[in-house]
């Protein structure tokens, strides 16, 4: 298949040039991709310098050749060449040409090619820290697109046209983008999405049939479509897509491989409700609670002059948004601190509570900030004043950034069993600070509580993960929906139950029954 040979060849070239492979991971955080944007600017400059140097060199070569031709021409006007060389000045020039000119002007520079070496050095320097992105990056971004399609119910042609919920992107995808996405989805076994993208590639390619080799590309895409259809169990359609020329190898593949198990989409029982809330649609369910917005100047003396702006979004369990808690200046200072630290891909706690593993259910990057800078001291204090709990035993603030299709599927914040050894009790409360606005998507949703919250920069959401009895409250399962457009940044602080005896006394009677029905 043409596609494979192309990309294999390109990949090998890049590996010849770049010794280092990817170190970081780019697709899971917009911040990381911004690092790559700066690198690309430098790469453009390095390439321009290289081209200019080469052009200068080429100019020197061709002028030299021209000069020699000129001399040879005048030599040939003499009756014979010997006569030309008999002239001492001529033979001097002739020999000098070999000893010096050819060597220093042409052969040396061509063999050494200094501009190329300089180019290679500067490219290596550019990628030394970041690493060069490899195919896993494209795969991550493609998975992100597939996730957007699934959660927001978008077709491939919606995305290819650049129309997302009525908002027109500047960039549209062409047939080869769609083809690449289809191939990547095929590789990760998402066959029905792969089919959709390959069909879209064919449609777009058919608008470009005057292009060179378009017939080759068409049969290439049809071949992939045949494989996809075979994997989906549509073997008749698969065979109809192949023509005699291209089909031999593929048919062999089709006959020899058994159909793999197909992943059912929307497998999880929570998926429909989650997806609906992510789209900003409430579940069809009566809302009995009367919710209020109010100013609160009494909670703590700190709020006497500047009362808290409180928005209730759910009662029992209470979920409350506090608006305007952090200023833009404070948020920039948080980013200044977090940018100094290495971002790592967010993990999820393993089943045994020990190992943290990287999984697609959580696509973001994070750092942890302690409370030593003035801004973080402020964050510490205001969180304590709002929650009415002590920060003793609280974790450092986790600052997370979500990239293309970045998300965190429904999960609880409590541990319940297998508390990490340094934990003083379980995570009694979550304070989620929104550190950016998100143009589209990225809502925080509580599928059990019929609640969705669009991120609002500077606001903070607070809820308790434990009942007063300290039993876990499964109603608080929540999720970060995939980001469609924008860069989502949040800061989470988890307070622990161990030190709250006097702040939030335990109830003697368990109220755990309230949430038993919601256990996932
Ligand atoms: C890409 O690089 C990352 C990080 O170095 C590595 O984990 C991953 O296996 C690489 N993927 C491929 C396809 O080489
Ligand atoms: C690239 O070169 C241009 C023009 O020389 C310069 O203005 C720009 O700052 C350079 N960019 C980087 C990232 O060095
Ligand atoms: C998804 O969108 C299609 C129309 O494009 C609609 O028919 C279908 O009902 C939607 N599915 C869900 C689950 O919203
Ligand atoms: C989804 O929401 C509906 C309406 O609120 C509810 O009746 C149903 O049980 C929910 N489904 C799941 C799997 O939680
Ligand atoms: C807080 O973080 C800073 C920067 O990473 C570090 O220098 C400092 O030692 C840390 N302080 C505490 C108390 O951990």
TrEMBL record:
GO terms for molecular function: iron ion binding; L-ascorbic acid binding; procollagen-proline 4-dioxygenase activity. InterPro entries: Oxoglu/Fe-dep_dioxygenase_dom, P4H_N, P4HA-like, Pro_4_hyd_alph, Pro_4_hyd_alph_FE2OG_OXY, TPR-like_helical_dom_sf. It comes from Drosophila ananassae. The gene is Dana\GF22908. Belongs to the P4HA family. It holds the Pfam family P4Ha_N. It is found in: Endoplasmic reticulum lumen. Residues 1-24 form the signal peptide. Keywords: Dioxygenase, Endoplasmic reticulum, Glycoprotein, Iron, Metal-binding, Oxidoreductase, Signal, Vitamin C. Its cofactor is L-ascorbate. Its EC number is 1.14.11.2. This is procollagen-proline 4-dioxygenase. SMART domains: P4Hc. Residues 393-497 form the Fe2OG dioxygenase domain. GO terms for cellular component: endoplasmic reticulum lumen. Catalyzes the post-translational formation of 4-hydroxyproline in -Xaa-Pro-Gly- sequences in collagens and other proteins. It is an enzyme of class 1 (oxidoreductase).
